[in-house]
Amino acid sequence: MARKRELSSETRQSILVLRNEGYSMREIAKKLKISYNGVYYSLQRTAQTGSNQSRKRSGRPRCTTKQEDKHIRVSSLRNRRLTGPQLASSLNSTRKTPVSTSTVKRRLRDFGLQGRVAKKKPYLRLANKRKRLRWAKEHRHWTEEDWKKVLWTDESKFEVFGSQRRTFVRRRTNEKMLEECLTPSVKHGGGNVMVWGCFGAGKVGDLYRVKGILNKEGYHSILQRHAIPSGQRLIGANFILQQDNDPKHTSKLCKNYLQQKQAAGILSVMEWPAQSPDLNPIELLWEQLDRMVRLKCPSNQSNLWELLLEAWGAISPAYLNKLTARMPKVCNAVIAALTKAKFDV
């Protein structure tokens, strides 16, 4: 037997209006193309309740108790890597009637616990965690103008075909292997281009193509020909140079050179915490640059380099300012995460 269709509030209102105008219930049923019983019970309920709205339904009873809901939440918070099936299995071990994985996931969503891809972060030793926390505390009160004095620098690799960065698609069920929903890949990415780049004060600096292996001599040349000229052009005298702790960056050759420039009042070198690429906003710039280049489908290494230069010049100042404006939030997030460990700094 087909399920009966519920009358809408508008239909019930029409029934009431027609009844008040003197129409019989059979005439109303014929006019609105609904059953006689539908008209009769609608008028009866309106007379009893004084409203033509649907009654509030109790809904299907929850199959889990408040105590079980709490167990699901606490178990997930104690071990963030437990999957829905694992949590359901743990709960069902103490129940006569098992609950589904979908039910467990709904309970988790009710508590605001969403399944997400875990962000990758290099393993940090205790000493590095302390340095990371100290850096965040020293810079948490910097203003937006303070952050604009920093020249952010880094190296990155871009592949001709495919990308190591995450790609999102929107698809329906059973479309996982559809060609337009796949990210094609080939061995070794079909070749790649290594670049060094920088930005500061809402503008991009030089983008330099690194050929071969970048050693301390090569990085020393980048400092001379690209980093310092970019910093002076974008920010001005005594800009703050940010670089990570890569061995070639901290070699005696480069260290002595930068100390000379500091003594001359040309720049200041920011002390950077070890294993902290996630703190550097240029990482987000690389992601954006990669997305822009992927839209053009580079065919070879030369074409990829041309597209990188084109996209680099198209980066908007508004986007770059947005990257530096988020730095206070980054510092506060680091402090919030590491303060729980009660480090002495």
TrEMBL record:
Annotated GO MF terms: DNA binding
Polar residues bias locations: 86-103
GO biological process entries: DNA integration; DNA transposition
Pfam family, one: HTH_Tnp_Tc3_2
Highest taxon above the source species: Eukaryota
Domain Tc1-like transposase DDE span(s) in chain numbering: 150-295
Protein name as annotated: Paired domain-containing protein
InterPro entries xrefs: Homeodomain-like_sf, RNaseH_sf, Tc1-like_DDE_dom, Transpos_IS630-like, Transposase_5, Transposase_Tc1-like, WH-like_DNA-bd_sf
Gene3D superfamilies reported in the protein's UniProt record: Ribonuclease H-like superfamily/Ribonuclease H, Winged helix-like DNA-binding domain superfamily/Winged helix DNA-binding domain
Domain Transposase Tc1-like: 77-141
Region described as Disordered: 47-103
